[in-house]
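Moderator note: this is an archived Q&A kept for reference. The question asked for a predicted structure of one protein chain; the sequence and the answer are reproduced below.
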Amino acid sequence: MNSEGLKTRVALIAHGSRDPNWCRRIESFAQRIAGDLGENQIVLCFMELNEPTLMQVAEVASQQGVERLKVIPMFMASGGHVDKDIPVQAKAVQTTFPQLKVEVLPPLGEHPQVLQAMAEAITDALSST
């Protein structure tokens, strides 16, 4: 539950890849986050090439009584996929599951804390030369 009393789930949506190494890394990242925040609160899905899809995640969430699905694009910045493709998928989810409030948040790479962490990593790289 969140502060508004709605049962909320976060869907981290990644692009997807045919490269199994990429898939393992992104799945490991999502598992780490889910382990820290709650296995039932954080799920990973893919825009294309891999499963589960956003629609599949939404179906499970709907069956489990989730009322709000917050979609966080695992992208560095807004662009074609974030601005066009993911909202189209989110709208399809909203149409299919009208009882589920779907909200697409800004991409992870634009979050101020992520930007700060990247700046610190760059500073560390400069100071270690």
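Archived answer notes: The two ends are 46 Å apart (CA to CA).
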